[in-house]
Amino acid sequence: PADIISTVEFNHTGELLATGDKGGRVVIFQREPESKNEPYNQGEYNVYSTFQSHEPEFDYLKSLEIEEKINKIKWLPQQNAAHSLLSTNDKTIKLWKITERDKRPEGYNLKDEEGKLKDLSTVTSLQVPVLKPMDLMVEVTPRRIFANGHTYHVNSISVNSDCETYMSADDLRINLWHLAITDRSFNIVDIKPANMEDLTEVITASEFHPHHCNLFVYSSSKGSLRLCDMRASALCDKHSKLFEEPEDPSNRSFFSEIISSVSDVKFSHSGRYMLTRDYLTVKVWDLNMETKPVETYQVHDYLRSKLCSLYENDCIFDKFECAWNGSDSVIMTGAYNNFFRMFDRNTKRDVTLEASRESSKPRAILKPRRVCVGGKRRKDDISVDSLDFTKKILHTAWHPTENIIAIAATNNLYIFQDKVNSEMH
Amino acid sequence: MFVRGLKRKCFDGEEDIEGTLAGIKAIPSYNLQRQSLLDMSLVKLQLCHMLVEPNLCRSVLIANTVRQIQEEMTQDGTWQMINTQSTGQASLDCLVSTDILCRSSREQAEGKHVPGYSTFNKDFEGDQAQDSLETMSTASSVQAPRNLQNNVWEMENPQENKGNFQKSLDQIFETLENKSPNSVEDLFSEVDNSYYDLDTMLTGMMSNTKMGHCDGLETFTSPTTATSSSNCKSDLNELDHIVEILVES
């Protein structure tokens, strides 16, 4: 199924929402401007543009297919009337420019309406071509293709706050690119061992700091975070700070390392904190404290006793993303059974919601869900054993300023809006 | 019966009798589960998608798990054949039953008694010296595919076993590094052919062995089962071919 959504991303104003799918397609949604005339239609997202970003390729050297699945999309800050975004599959990053055309010139002197040259003898007077309105046309063009930069699979891209450079990270290396230069990139992190047999750790995610253009973070499969400063040296193998929580010896099992692997890392909007997601928890880290996270939230701790089965069916390797709200007061992440969780950092309250057709009629209020782990069971509770592990919410995004969230549930996109700024319960 | 050391990280040696007895009962189950986890992990590593490059993160995590188990087994010295204990047909459906391996080491040290994980055919009870022929023939039943893998690994010399693990891991990473269509062949070509007794060949038990091995793979609820078992069968055909050559020469 080629329409499984593989990434979701709002642009910097929240006006546009881009999704990438397994078939290499990108769909961009645009928010309808709010108008007093139609209060019910305000703020809805409708399809703005669809285009094929990546095609399947074949690596002849290795006799391997290169999937066209879009791993990540990142928007560039808007600098003129056009919008730009970066989209990447496992190997190649592309810069796309999105422009609108809603007028066209009419009344040429030398050409007729179809563009054919006029017979000059019929031209008796000069006219000035006039711009006339036309149906809105959205044009998407590939402006840059950043190829051959990665031997391994690209898992993250991140645009620098300088708006001139961006980085792309694969399992073992991170490259720095200039947005205008496609035939060169600088390798800034390389954790590939001399002997591949000695490989025990890979890079899982990375991101630039939102304000300091010299700082970036990358996470690893062993659960550590490394903050690097590009001013320190050209090759940032040596981290400036290492964030790692010591293992709890009483909770140790053969799966400890796997569940500690960080699947996503996101800086807070303030730039003061980092949010990480591992298999069972989300953690908030203070950039000033490397020894342990300042907050830890249990996403689905009831799975701790099922790790063996989840290892068997590969679910334990699922990579969930996490997100901050605009004010960094609430964090969100996905789970199984099309559930997603939100944690309010101030009130310490959390809620589990479901993204499904049944529970999401337009303008209906989402009902909190509960997973029961034996003991007292309330009416609408779901038991752990009846959770559907094929329905996983891996990709979620939060509008940069408002309480609007985008949830990707396999091949469906849900957009939830919070009209009234109500408290979570 | 000699009691092997139970790995206890948080406890000192002074245990009350009840705890120790419960601990003894828990030992074989823990070892069996650990063994099956090891087997499962090795199978996961070897079942690569032939067309698309395997996920390196997943492979590294599985390989690290294999190393962990290997280290622990080395420390415990548990290379001998584990005697059976059949406490009934335990469900292979792990999602329903409680898994020892998912428990913290603290819980294990407390010696909680858990339902046995009976993976061994009754025929194996108490017999350490069975040769590989009998092992394979009795393990060929479809119901107990894991028996074959367990026994095949257990029957070997412990030193060889360790060597094979290391070899397998190294090969796997080389394979991941230099992915080529021959990769899976390479992995299988290093399999120790001493499993395959001449007697086994001549009495045509190879077909049973193949069956058991592939069924074992098919029981895994992996999304790649469909393609992987067909890969497995073709690879075992090749192994078959290699063995035939050995027999002829």
TrEMBL record, chain A:
Q: Which residues form the signal peptide?
A: none
Q: Which GO terms describe its cellular component?
A: protein phosphatase type 2A complex
> What are the entry keywords?
Repeat, WD repeat
Which branch of life, at top level? Eukaryota
Q: A GO molecular-function term, please?
A: protein phosphatase regulator activity
| Keyword Ribosomal protein on entry | no
The record's annotation in PANTHER family points to:
PROTEIN PHOSPHATASE PP2A REGULATORY SUBUNIT B
- Similarity section: Belongs to the phosphatase 2A regulatory subunit B family.
* Name by which UniProt lists this protein: Serine/threonine-protein phosphatase 2A 55 kDa regulatory subunit B
Provenance organism? Nycticryphes semicollaris
Record gene name: Ppp2r2c
TrEMBL record, chain B:
Superkingdom: Eukaryota
| Domain SERTA residues, every copy | 30-77
What's in the GO CC field?
A: nucleus
Query: Entry's InterPro entries?
Result: E2F-SERTA_domain_protein, SERTA_dom
Q: Where is the signal peptide?
A: none
Q: Which Pfam families has this protein been placed in? A: SERTA
Stated name of the protein? CDCA4 protein
- What is the species listed in this Swiss-Prot or TrEMBL entry? Nycticryphes semicollaris
Lineage of the source organism? Answer: Eukaryota, Metazoa, Chordata, Craniata, Vertebrata
